[in-house]
Amino acid sequence: MSDSELGYGSSFTVDSVKVIAESVGIGNLVDDAAKELADDVSYRLKIIVQDAMKFMQHSKRQKLSITDIDHALKVQNIEPQYGFIQPDSLPFRFASGGGRELHFIEEKDIDLSEILSAPPPKIPLDVSLRAHWLSVDGVQPTVPENPPPLSKEAQKLESVDPITKLSKPANKDAAGKPVCGKAARLKASESVHVKQLATHELSVEQQLYYKEITEACVGSDEGRRAEALQSLACDPGLHEMLPRMCTFISEGVKVNVVQNNLALLIYLMRMVKAMLDNQSLYLEKYLHELIPSVSTCIVARQLCMRPEVDNHWALRDFAARLMAQICKTFNTSTNNLQTRVTRLFSKALQCPSQTNNESGPSMVPSMKESEKTPLASLYGAVQGLAELGPEVVKVFILSRVRWLGERVEGALSGIGGADRLAAGNLKHQLLKVLAPVVRAHRQPPDLPDDYKREYGYLGPSLQQMVSKLRSSPTGGNAGGAVAVVTCTPPLLPSPSPAPGPSLAPAPAPAPSPSPASVTIQHTSQAHAKTIESVASRNVVITSSAPQSPAPSTPPPQKFVIVSSQQKNQVFTNTQPASSAGHIVMHSSQPTIVRSQNAPVSVVAKPVFARSGSAQQPPPELDDLSHLA
Amino acid sequence: MGDKSTPLLAVLQLLRKYNLKGTEDILRKEANLGDVEYENLDLPEVELANILTAHHTESDPYSYEFAYDSLKKFVENSLDVYKYELSTLLYPVFVHMYLILILYDHNEHAIKILEKFGPEQDEYYQDDLKRLCAVKNKDQVKGNELAEIYSSNKFQVQLSRDASTQLKRYLHEQKSSPIIINIIKNHIQIDVCDGPGRSHAQVKSTLGGLLGEASRNENRTKVYYGLLKEPDLQILPAQIEDEEEAEETPDKPKKKKAKKDNIFMKKPKSDPNAPPNDRIPLPDLKENDKVEKGKALREAAKRVQLGPECLPSICFYTLLNSGHTAICADICDDSTLLAVGFNNSTIKVWTLTTVRLRGMKSADKLQDIDREAVRLWSLQCWTCIVVYRGHVWPVWDTRWSPHGHYFASGGHDRIARLWATDHHQPLRIFAGHLSDIDCIQFHPNSNYIATGSSDRTVRLWDCLTGTQVRIMTGHRSTPFTLAFSACGRWLASGGGAGEIQIWDLSSGLPSAAIPPASNSPIHALAFSRDGTILASGSLDSTIKLWDFAIISDENINEENGNAAPTQKEDKFLLRSYATKNSPIKSLHFTRRNLLLAVGSYDGSV
């Protein structure tokens, strides 16, 4: 109604006419004349636009174009306005001053010589014709030429307001399976009014697809996995399988965390990544399954068989990035996703003594070792928070840096290779994350003593890092914020099996794998000044031979993850380590965990049934269980 | 002649009319009017009444508002039986009040009344009101298309006898303020019909025309909507075809044969509603045409029977890189050629089969939006053969007769023309539409032409006599596409607001209205060859299939009861297919009932 009222009244104002008059050099237009002109011009313009609309409608468009106006002018026997060609609408600029407001079109000066010297524009592509099947016997095939069967908006609506699905009669808009067989006959006779249940049947093709995809994603063939992930990330029309996919992932994570099967966890996270990347899927309905899985992969106590050698850090980094992506995509004011995720991580970082005593150095040693949050979880929590942005880092990590420093210090000075490695990684990560924040936060000069006082153990290293950052003003990269490990496809094993320099100093406890199954890849070089800070993170998975000397030898057909790490001196050096690593995985066996007997199927039953003897799921899973 | 003297002249004319010589002389003397002006006293009756009426109330423009309010109250308080019929009076009264106020320089009051009562008019009138409100003073009324339509034509309103008695009683009570009486007298044609008052739905179904409803008398002519008798063809090649078929599908040849027999059996039956074959002269079939016909029949024998259980396959042709340049598209009857018209006045023709384009012997079937001329293109030598001039303004649509030889065009000049290939002048001129003719379609028996116009009417013209035989109102927006059903009895029209109307040509009444699914206009309609499915394509990039069997069945059943047309959409809708941002330009059922659709991909959305 307000629209139509607006429509009745619109016309040129006297002011507009005066401004236009000024612009053509008539300075002293009388009010009455302006009024007359305004009325007349409004009328004539309206007539022209009304005529132009006819041309627009016959051109089967809903947007008025300049050619329509030209045609309308021609119909009225008026010379059209030549020289106005604009493919898109021109934005009006606004200016005010001297009590007058003005909307005008900006006219730019064009340098002709520039146009002349510029390469000629591309010739527009010729119109071409392409045929595809929109429907075959009434069913719309899900080929890329057709839109996804259920649009993202519809999926969103359904997840926000499930009632709409039920109230929609027979869901005719979704061009899925035609009503056929018994249901159709019932409907046709209209004698029985059966309320349609929301069906969750998958067609045979979908069942096959599900089977293929899940097998390929966790299988041994890297090529097939890449294809499967590509399909997950690009294909439309997967929404019907989403519930099963998500259950597959969440159950898979639960089982494999208990089994410490790092490779499978990585595969599952890559599936999550692919699904998040799919433009036609709306995942919000399944976040209650995905978020616990992802957060498990970030902060779990143990993700691999031998924490001292396996590179589970890469998985934590990758999962943290996934979590940030989830938060960014799905955070709304109603689900408060980011707040909840942040709370989850900050809880892991919670200094146990914080509630009682602010200065906790005396408390820490007195605590039992088992009560402490493991360093690996701390690392994950830091990484998870860091991905959420500098503000989060400032509030949640910087305030706890003193306590974290103590933990690192304690672990580094203590015994136990795994702890020292973890502490080193944690310290490195903390420095990397904190330095840019501190740099933005603090004013120079950076005095080591101040830092020491304020940040405790990590102070001096932080100070060096910050001053380094300050000295390289453009160096966004110098902060070491470059992604360290990428697990995203395509990850192809580098063909050369020869051990490179980065593998040579492989730590002693690692089993020496059979050369044929080892692949390695390059590590990127860091800054030239201090080469010793190259930290290579290689995850090499071999189908280890039974004679593997690892102490907790897993059953054959399992993965062993080998990582080569350079320790200690990496972290004492302030030179940021830009290390790149690829994860390369090889296996000769399908990777479904064997100890479970649940068949691989596509029924609603989860693929990975949790065995009775399995340990409790990691405590991290519980934090978000209320999402379910 | 000054404006002020116009009322005086009107009074003089009135005095002369009643032969009051004395008074006339005195007035002439007093007003100092010259002889010249006096001699030229020939104001039209309508204007005269208008002037005098306005003069009477000129002093009190406020009374208009009260008058309208009182009319509204009268309508609201009347019995339900009359209410809906009487409510159709409100809009024309309102429009003419506005125009009269403008004519007598009460511009502020006119705008005030527009703003007060405009929004409460039916929504399908809102577009007209917006166009009308551009008129803001007296001078503009004369040049304005819409205002002229309103003032030079009478608005049609249908009332039952009882309702009109009610109205007369009301008007009698209103003697003191003659505004409404005068408007109704001068600008509204009340069509009184016997029988009970119509229900809300019945009234609604025919409302929406620019000038109200069609009067019943206009639709009394008999329309021969049946199909022509097909000429007998020797179907020699059919035998060969049979063998081929047997080879193709050896498992069920019997069924096929039965079907085919059925199709050939049907033909000799003569339809009582069909016009005689020689009602309009049709060209004799040449040997070539006979071969073509035979081919068509054999193709038709392979036709898939469609129905709600058996939906057609759709092959979608997407025009890539066309942007907004592709305007219209058409596929020829034997589904071998696709022509697309572009906004730079070029036509591109694609072949849809593997046959090369050159050397095709085919009917020249092309259409293009061309300015002020219709061109005939030959597909044999790929040149423009004839330019038919006659239209003064842009031509919006052209269409071939199904039997060839004739074609029809209609456009901005509100006139539809019938042409034949051997004359450079139009054979018939169909005038009567009040606004642009936006779409035109030949009846399958070539005897009639349907036109849809921006005045929101669909009209049917007889090619033989050149007269209008049906005027169908009920569209709420401009119809942009028309399609005759395969049997020739039904006409479907798709409107600019996305609604589809089905008309029964035997009565001229709307038989079904499919409400819009979205606001986008329908740009293509096609009936399946067996008449069971209606396909519609719209600007919102969807193709929808409707169950036409239900629509037509219902109407035949309802004929006796004269019930209101049904409005249930989901009952008719079979399925909706979305494309990827490709608004539909054209739809075409092949002879085997495969649906071909053409759309141009619009990447910018």
From TrEMBL, chain A:
InterPro entries per record: Histone-fold, TAF6, TAF6_C, TAF6_C_sf, TAF_TATA-bd_Histone-like_dom
Bias-annotated ranges (Pro residues): 493-514
Keyword Nucleus part of the UniProt annotation: yes
GO MF, any single term: protein heterodimerization activity
A biological process from GO: RNA polymerase II preinitiation complex assembly
Cellular localization per UniProt: Nucleus
Domain of life: Eukaryota
Pfam family, one: TAF
UniProt feature coiled coil, ranges: none
PANTHER family, sorted: TRANSCRIPTION INITIATION FACTOR TFIID SUBUNIT 6
Protein name as catalogued: Transcription initiation factor TFIID subunit 6
Record lineage: Eukaryota, Metazoa, Ecdysozoa, Arthropoda, Hexapoda
TrEMBL record, chain B:
Cross-referenced SUPFAM superfamilies: Taf5 N-terminal domain-like (SSF160897), WD40 repeat-like (SSF50978)
Localization, UniProt: Nucleus
InterPro entries in alphabetical order: TFIID_NTD2, TFIID_NTD2_sf, WD40/YVTN_repeat-like_dom_sf, WD40_PAC1, WD40_repeat_dom_sf, WD40_rpt
Keywords in alphabetical order: Nucleus, Repeat, WD repeat
Record region (Disordered): 242-289
Domain of life of the native organism: Eukaryota
Name of one Pfam family that matches: TFIID_NTD2
TFIID subunit TAF5 NTD2 domain span: 59-188
WD repeat extents: 388-429, 430-471, 472-513, 515-547
The keyword Repeat appears for this protein: yes
Biased composition (Basic and acidic residues): 260-270
Gene3D superfamilies named among the record's database cross-references: TFIID subunit TAF5, NTD2 domain, YVTN repeat-like/Quinoprotein amine dehydrogenase
Principal subcellular localisation of the protein: nucleus
Sequence similarity: Belongs to the WD repeat TAF5 family.
Name the UniProt record assigns to this protein: Transcription initiation factor TFIID subunit 5 isoform X2
Species the sequence originates in: Bicyclus anynana
Organism classification: Eukaryota, Metazoa, Ecdysozoa, Arthropoda, Hexapoda
Gene designation: LOC112049721
